[in-house]
Design brief:
Elements: H1 2-5, H2 9-32, H3 42-70, H4 77-98, H5 106-134, H6 140-157, H7 165-201, H8 213-231, H9 236-257, H10 266-289, H11 295-321, H12 334-349, H13 357-384
Helix pairs in contact: 2-3, 2-4, 2-13, 3-4, 3-5, 3-7, 4-5, 5-6, 6-7, 7-8, 7-10, 7-11, 8-9, 9-10, 10-11, 11-12, 11-13, 12-13
Length: 393
């Protein structure tokens, strides 16, 4: 069993991502239930999701996918274990600091900083090596995104172990836009293809799924410009214009991808739901920039619905295909998606005046924790056992 967790990146790193998704939100849940948790700050909460949970999920996907795209062997064995231990040590050290233990020694602060900042550059290197070795230029954009992510992690720490509220908030906002672009990039590659394949399996002509190149290029360009508008903190009007344009382009692309035709296949429609949440988050951002709705609505639509939804859509699908299993959710698996959607809807609605905020946030927290906990329960047999077709990996 231990050996199988090290057989392919998706096994161990998806498990790490699911576990990391539980801690920060469970901490918030305890606070709302009246349990003292003074160590939980907005900065720690955001940091552990954006630089702990999401990088683990990205590592599981990218190290598995890039091996396929470049025809190279995926990271496995001791090398994979070392990468995981580096990620885990960073989570432990930051939690130790969060609960108030700090010996005050310079070496300890330097150790925390070094360990926490090391993971993303290591992931960049591990993705870059097969890409450069095989001359696969199509993947270079992934390297640029990982490089930016690493730089934003440095910026979030303000070159010290403390998470500075103002600087960390700015870094988090840029990182969210960068992750949005990463999801759009990956989604452009997999959502139309998986939808087309699902329709063909059900007897529908897959040619109905289209992805016009102008819309693809527009979404990539607008995603890059969106990052710049947040990075440079441009005037609200310019930021709203770019966000609205990207949101509408994503909605147009969803129309061409014909996701509603695959409504019987949860593994497919959840991918479309994740992209839909990205578009909704962008349109809510426009409304927030004009002070029509609280900004938190847009951020939670993006983080819970968009990022959380796409991560669950991917970590429920990839283990099936890469373990030789049919693309069919385990019994009860659709509840993973329904719980996540419950969390996203209630967390966004919780910010509207006049609604029971405490109850809605509690519901959102339970939905989020329940979704990832259920994934661990249902997918443990998949990630901990050998491939059913006898192949390695």
């Amino acid at each position: 069993m231990k050996t199988m967790l090290l057989a392919s990146p998706f096994r161990l790193m998806f498990l790490a991502a699911a576990l990391a998704a539980l801690l920060p939100v469970t901490a918030w849940l305890l606070i709302y239930l009246g349990v003292p948790a003074g160590a939980v700050t907005p900065q720690w909460h955001a940091h552990e999701l954006l630089f702990g949970m999401v990088p683990a999920a990205a590592a599981g996907f990218l190290l598995t996918a890039v091996a396929n795209w470049t025809g190279t062997a995926p990271l496995h064995g001791k090398a994979l274990l070392l990468l995981f231990l580096l990620w885990l040590l960073a989570r432990i050290l930051l939690l130790v600091l969060a609960v108030g233990f700090n010996p005050g020694a310079d070496w300890f602060g330097a150790l925390v900083l070094l360990v926490d900042l090391a993971f993303l550059p290591c992931l960049l290197l591990l993705v870059a090596l097969p890409v450069i070795r095989t001359g696969n230029r199509r993947q270079w954009v992934l390297l640029l995104i990982l490089l930016l992510w690493s730089a934003l992690h440095f910026y979030a720490h303000a070159f010290g172990t403390a998470l500075w509220p103002l600087q960390h908030t700015h870094a988090s906002h840029i990182t969210l836009d960068m992750l949005l672009l990463l999801i759009v990039l990956i989604g452009s590659r997999i959502v139309p293809m998986f939808t087309r394949n699902a329709l063909q399996r059900s007897g529908i002509d897959g040619a109905v799924v289209r992805d016009p190149k102008p819309l693809l290029l527009a979404s990539m360009l607008l995603g890059a410009v969106l990052i710049l508008t947040t990075m440079l903190q441009l005037a609200p009007g310019w930021r709203a214009l770019v966000a609205a344009a990207l949101g509408l382009v994503l909605l147009l692309r969803l129309g061409y991808w014909q996701g509603w035709r695959a409504w019987r296949d949860p593994l497919v429609w959840m991918l479309h739901a994740g992209i839909l949440w990205l578009a909704l988050a962008l349109l809510l951002r426009v409304a927030a920039l004009y002070q029509l709705v609280p900004a938190s609505m847009a951020y939670h639509a993006l983080t819970v619905g968009g990022i959380g939804g796409m991560i669950l859509a991917i970590i429920t699908r990839v283990p099936l295909g890469h373990s030789g299993r049919a693309f069919v959710l385990p019994k009860g698996g659709a509840w993973i998606y329904w719980l996540l959607l419950l969390a996203a809807i209630t967390r966004v609605l919780a910010m509207l005046p006049g609604l029971p905020q405490r109850e809605l946030i509690l519901t959102a927290s339970v939905g989020w924790v329940g979704a990832f906990a259920l994934w661990i329960v249902l997918y443990w047999p998949v990630i901990s056992r050998p491939r059913v077709d006898g192949k390695p990996g």
